[in-house]
Amino acid sequence: MNDIKRIVLTGGPCAGKTTALVRIIEHFSSLGFKVFTIPEVPTLFTQAGMNYLTKNKGFFYEGEKATLEIQLALEDKFMRMAQECVKPSIIVCDRGAMDISAYMEPEVWEQITRAVGTSTPELRDRYDAVLHLVSAADGAEQYYTTANNAQRYEQMNEEGLRIARGLDKKVIHAWTGHPHLRVINNHDDFDCKMRRVIKEISNVLGLPQPIVKERKYIVELTGTLPEDSIESDITQTYLQGEPDAEIRLRKRSWGRKFVYVHTTKKKTSENEELVTERQINLSLYEMMLGLADPGRQTIHKRRNSFIWKGQYFEVDTYLDQLQGLVILETKGIAEGEPVKFPPFLRVIKDVTGDEAYYNYNLAAKNNS
């Protein structure tokens, strides 16, 4: 049976999902993959007469419950179809189950998932990767339009942009906790955004990718981080292994929610590397800690993730032996594209490409 990857393409309004789906089909079909795409179920329901803005609570509940049920049924049916294919297959969902939760109160979502016989952790874990495309309403307002989706409730005015930005962040929060959530920035060149989508899916499929140096800066926090930033606690342990491979365990927590991930990075050539990432359970995580590299300390840091003017940032505040070090890392900003630094951060030093500030080297015991 094929190892079929199920990938969610999500994001706020006017994020480029429709174009991305076309690019995905063209690119991976040319590589010999059978690409299945699951349509956006809420749009199908709206076209069929569902009103998600209704004040009728019973109608809203039944409509949202049916939306989730049909979403899951479509995914399961296409998975069975993919399993019968001779070609390697991937399933790309135009939004996934957790997107539905972003449009209602938590207690209503809890009622619906219980009625359907599932839960938030189960729904989040059914996908191999989640790619969140940032809405054009955040940092690329000149490209924001409602023309490509007649069912869109957010209009092309200042209030509509504000609502769209809010929905964008709600969707990210809904998927927070997935080990392979990737946020795809807006770019001045839209093709950069599409290339990042292709790259992230290629990583999930285990295809070697060009080595990209994400931009890193030592910074000082001079103001308050955004209220809607997502805070998590990360513990990173490096394991013994092949000399040309970097193997790490990561425990990441958001409040009482924990995710454990095993990652291997290995160069396949001077300019390419293969990254393999898999979620593991607590028992396996604890067992693998016994393979920790004795020459490296565990990295402990607090991460704040947020979008600022359409660009995605992570601020890592290091703890324990690296107390006082704060690093800002950009995600997916194209070469030559300016970084829109938030005003509450002061850049002290650009350390992009400086191997001394790779986590793998920061963990070396001679750095303590």
How would you sum up this structure, described in words?
- A hairpin with a 7-residue loop joins β13 and β14.
- The strands form two sheets. This protein has a ten-stranded antiparallel sheet. The chain has a five-stranded parallel sheet with strand order 2-3-1-4-5, with helices on both faces.
- It is 31% helix and 28% strand.
- The radius of gyration is 21 Å and the shape is globular.
- It is built from ten helices and 15 strands.
- The model is unreliable at 142-154 (pLDDT under 50).
- The protein is α+β, with helices and mostly antiparallel strands and 368 residues long.
Helix-strand blueprint:
Blueprint: E1 5-11, H1 17-30, E2 34-38, H2 41-48, H3 57-83, E3 89-94, H4 97-101, H5 106-116, H6 120-125, E4 129-133, H7 158-175, E5 181-184, H8 190-204, E6 209-210, E7 216-221, E8 230-238, E9 245-254, E10 257-267, E11 272-280, H9 282-288, E12 299-308, E13 311-318, E14 326-331, E15 345-350, H10 359-362
Parallel strand pairs: 1-3, 1-4, 2-3, 4-5
Antiparallel strand pairs: 6-11, 7-14, 7-15, 8-9, 8-12, 9-10, 10-11, 12-13, 13-14
Helix pairs in contact: 3-5
